[in-house]
Amino acid sequence: MSQKKVFIETYGCQMNFSDSEIVGSIMKSIDYQLTTEIKEANVIFLNTCSIRDNAEQRVNRRLRELRSYKKNNPDLKIGLLGCMAERLKEQIFNEEAVDLIVGPDAYRDLPNLLNTVDSGQKAANVILSEEETYAEIEPVRLDNNGISAFISIMRGCENFCTYCVVPYTRGKERSRSPETIINEAKDLFQKGYREITLLGQNVNSYQWEDDKSFNFTKLLESIALINPLLRVRFATSHPKDISDELLHIIAKYENICKAIHLPVQSGSSEVLKKMNRKYTREWYMNRIEAIKTIIPDCAVSTDIIAGFCGETDENHQDTLSLMQMVGFDYAFMFKYSERPDTVAAKRFKDDVPDHIKSKRLEEIIELQKHLSLASNKNDIGKTFKVLADSISKRSKLKLSGRNSQNKVVVFPKEDYNIADYVNIKITDCTSATLIGEAVLIS
Ligand code: 5AD
Ligand code: SF4
Which of 5, 98, 181, 414 registers the highest number of CB atoms within 10 A of its CB? Predict the structure, then answer.
């Protein structure tokens, strides 16, 4: 019998992409081959996201499309993985052509669950764990450029922001052992990788349970010390846990990238309180001041939600003014989407009309476009060390890469290759890209 094939489609955040690499590894251990051709697959997994309603709608549409695949191939098995599996549980069996439901902490059970499915029954495991970190599973690298990779360092979230479904779909916060993280990073470096991103819902609350003094700052420093040629990034940080100690370590090591993703969500202290973000506008601005003082060349990006429950026009203006004051280099911007069973859904009214949410979001996006362009224009004339990671999509004669600040930089290829560090002097830009040319630094 020929080897069975699994096709994995991933939705949502980087954490989910990292989880799909763990799922891939588990499937390989039971002799499945990973395929990028959906038509060849015996098993299709959708690794799903529940963060906003439209993320779930996309998956629902996909599931309906997959029904026709099943008609053509009755032996095909479809599995729903990740946050939607956790949120909707067995209920989804009633609605969709799904054979298997597996929550984010239950991937080790996939071999058993597939056995059940192969015997013609449906199977589910949505038990959340307090310990699972998949610590010693070596992920297969999907979407692989051979240069950058994710390493998941902690899972779960206990912040309970009132709008957010994640604490319910991903459970309690738990950190992975430093040893397994450092070994994974060393192994990647030896295999030729040059950039790793440490991932967690709140990376900076990382704390190893066997040695509470081993916090995120210590972990980051240990990774930076592996080799100066290995760059380190991390996402996502919570503003409440951005300590000066951490900022000093970022400043100290050249290979710790000077880019912090620090979701603010709103510029209004009143809204932040209702969101249970545990900081005020003033606290956030104080952290920004600290970043700019300790790491003057640090890029700051953010997430913003427009139209949270009860948000007034004045609250919205506070968000715009905070964006101006910080001058974010980049932002992910969303309309508030009520999620069932969250505190906001239970206690507050989703009372900002949709057209107002849309208008506010447009204003936020428009302002961010200006801020990103201003930030890029400010880089013209500067020289950055860029890690080349691909051939430019627009021209084979150009390379594309990122600088420490996580900005995309495009430059003439000349004799440079992917995985090279190249010093690039910036000569031009758009709001999304820096354009430059290589310079020799004596
Ligand atoms: N509605 C809109 N955006 C949300 N986010 C989280 N929950 C919601 C929601 N219910 C956004 C936040 C978070 C990012 C990952 O998604 O900005 O930082
Ligand atoms: Fe990631 Fe959150 Fe979406 Fe789950 S709900 S996939 S944790 S963004």
Answer: 181
Q: Does 167 reside within a domain?
A: no
Q: Is residue 389 situated within a structural domain?
A: yes
**DSSP strand pairing (433-438 vs 398-402):** unpaired
350 lines ligand 1 (CB under 6 A): no
First to last CA, the chain: 61
Cα 265 to ligand 1 centre (Å): 8
**Residue 425 pLDDT:** 98
Measured by CA distance, the residue closest to atom 17 of ligand 1 is: 303
Q: Which atom of ligand 1 is nearest to the CA of 339?
A: 10
Q: Is there a domain that residue 186 lies in? A: no
Residue 9 has pLDDT above 90, yes or no: yes
Residue 440 DSSP symbol: -
Bridge partners, 12 (sequence order): none
In ligand 1, which atom is closest to the CA atom of 165? Answer: 7
Taking phi first (over 0 means left), then psi (-120 to 50 degrees means alpha), and beta for anything else, what does residue 182 get?
Answer: alpha
CB of 337 within 6 A of ligand 1: the answer is: yes
User: In this structure, is residue 32 part of a structural domain?
Assistant: yes
pLDDT digits (tens, 9 = 90+) for 61-113: 999 999 888 888 989 999 999 999 999 999 988 877 899 999 999 999 999 99
Provide the token pair at 81. 């993985």
**pLDDT for res 1:** 64
Count of H-run helices and E-run strands, the chain: 14, 19
223 lines ligand 2 (CB under 6 A): no
Examine the pLDDT at 158 and tell me if it is beyond 90.
yes
DSSP 74-94: TT-EEEEEEHHHHHHTTHHHH
Give the structural domain span for 427.
383-438
